[in-house]
Predict the 3D structure of the following.
Amino acid sequence: MTAETLTTVFEAGRGNRAVELLAQTTFAMRADARFVERQDDMTAAVFLAEEEPAPMAVDALDRVLGLIDAAETLDGQAETAMRGRDGLGAEIAALPSPVREAALKAMAEHHRWSFAGLGIQRLSLFADQGEQAELLRIEPGHGVADHDHEDEELTLVLTGAYHDGHAAYRPGDVSVARPGFVHTPKAEPGEVCYVLLAYRGAPRFKGVFGLAQRAFGFPTPLSRRP
């Protein structure tokens, strides 16, 4: 996806909690060399170019240092919160802070990881007026069956990488899928692939999975769950 397209998508999603979480996580990743280091990414420059120049405040340095301290405090709290949990604890604690905090909040509210296919687990983060956000954990070599979409779906790669039959995506990449776009996301060999989804509606599976979906209503959109 080009930087201009990404800008358009995020602008269109203002007021949408799921898209805002995805945008915040994207920006956090692109400011952190642990997650992404790339020479061809012009997104940050595009956003900076759109900003109006402003004089630096007298307390700018103190405020920046305060933000750094606050971020380090959140990192420490996340590590403490996940200590003693199952094997996913360390993985969750290492995710970019916006999605990590959303995951911790969801788990504190008793949202559970659920089975989403062989080698795939999903955690519902929230559903807000039909807008949904969820975290997927995909083991290398595993993936989601062929599917179309009822509405727009944004996918941000957090760790690992995947190929959907059209293109390859790695940490920091955002995929936009709309109705009529059929793909088959599959995690690449190597690191476990975590992705953040922001979407409306439910995927429309093809083949055997499609028959099961139509017969049993799986996966049921979160907005329709009791």
The mean pLDDT is 75. The longest helix spans residues 60-82. The helical segments are 3-12, 17-30, 43-50, 60-82, 89-93, 97-108, 207-216.
